[in-house]
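Table 4 source record.
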Amino acid sequence: MLLRSDILTKADGDAVAVENIDGTGQVVLVCEHASRTLPLQAGDLGLSEEALWSHIAWDPGALALSRLLSLRLDAVLVFQRFSRLIYDCNRPPESPAAMPESSEIYEIPGNRDLSAAERFARTAALYVPFHDRVAAVLADRQAKSRPSVVVTVHSFTPVYMGERRAVEIGILHDEDSRLADGMLAEAAKGSDFRVERNAPYGPADGVTHSLKLHALPNGLMNVMIEVRNDLIADDVGQGVMAEYLAGLIKASLDAR
């Protein structure tokens, strides 16, 4: 059984990372599924190498895209350093998806029949530090009278459960659609990509947890961006997408 102190060792390092903390832009980027790395003590959770490279372990391309957006928007970036298989930081502790026993076609033996103590330990070691850091970044900016806009960055698979997805970019929101509305209106002016609202997921799927935790209670404009991962599989695609999305965000904020 993994105890709290065992989940992350000194060799693993911190659960969360922050880059460009002194960025002058108003956007705060959050990437919850940035890494496929598992803590050393967790081993491979009983999964094959194929599974550990797949979308169930992380959002391929999301961190690279986030870093390029950080450069273009001069935005601070907060990201999770470990796989969502050990804890999905875009899910609350009570959600079965926080430490899933299965994902898509894969069973996850290392997450099966976790005790309450093991679930608490993972929550304390991974979820709490991540969201504490996001909250601290936002609180520090507020104390310095700096406006903040929360943008979370994700990627999704072109094919899910055997069905091909036509959508290329999803602009997701919960109750506050201000930024999403602006980005969708801007996207409608051109035909660069197929952009849809709350697709391929939406609030009913539980994917807006970080927005609900950090943006909605504070009245901060926010959006969750989902990009089909075949479009950001290499440097060229990541650069094109970062330029496009930064343009949508800038135009939407400038119009307010």
